[in-house]
């Protein structure tokens, strides 16, 4: 598993399309040319697809982002409604990386259970689970 933090979305485009773009070779080195890529983005997923549609591995890029689900609720609950929470991302990895399969089935179930518990907690108490709401930013 690899985590790539994309700060400048324009780098997703080819270097010939945008001054901040990167070459196909560099893109493939970062995102691979043949493996699943799960892209967590707090905007509309179609933007990432539009920026990467000419790339080698475009068919394996799965974007999790804002899908206009939810209502007035907590920030983490909104992330869960849009399938962008940490639990769903782990489930997504397990489902897409074939070699994990049965070896990670218990972890997958733990993530499903954690999502259900977090949603229930928010419905009952109107706030996020303590593991989320008590977390302090490191800066």
UniProtKB/TrEMBL annotation:
What's a Pfam family in this record? XFP_C
BP terms from Gene Ontology: carbohydrate metabolic process
- Domain Xylulose 5-phosphate/Fructose 6-phosphate phosphoketolase C-terminal: where? 1-137
Entry keyword set: Lyase
Write down the InterPro entries for this protein, in alphabetical order. Answer: Transketo_C/PFOR_II (IPR009014), Xul5P/Fru6P_PKetolase (IPR005593), Xul5P/Fru6P_PKetolase_C (IPR018969)
Molecular function terms, GO-annotated: aldehyde-lyase activity
Supply the EC number(s).
4.1.2.-
Write out the similarity annotation: Belongs to the XFP family.
Q: Which PANTHER family match?
A: PHOSPHOKETOLASE-RELATED
Please give the name of this protein: Putative phosphoketolase
């Amino acid at each position: 598993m690899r985590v790539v933090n994309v700060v400048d979305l324009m780098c997703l485009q080819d270097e010939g399309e945008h001054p901040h773009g990167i070459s196909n070779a560099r893109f493939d080195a970062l995102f691979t040319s043949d493996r699943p890529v799960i892209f967590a983005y707090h905007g509309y997923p179609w933007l990432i697809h539009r920026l990467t549609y000419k790339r080698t591995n475009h068919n394996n890029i799965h974007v999790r982002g804002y899908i206009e689900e939810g209502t007035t609720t907590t920030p983490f609950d909104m992330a869960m409604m849009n399938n962008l929470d940490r639990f769903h991302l782990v489930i997504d990895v397990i489902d897409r990386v074939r070699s994990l399969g049965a070896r990670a089935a218990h972890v997958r179930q733990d993530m499903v259970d954690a999502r259900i518990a977090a949603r229930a907690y928010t419905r009952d108490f109107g706030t996020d689970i303590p593991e989320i709401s008590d977390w302090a930013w490191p800066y």
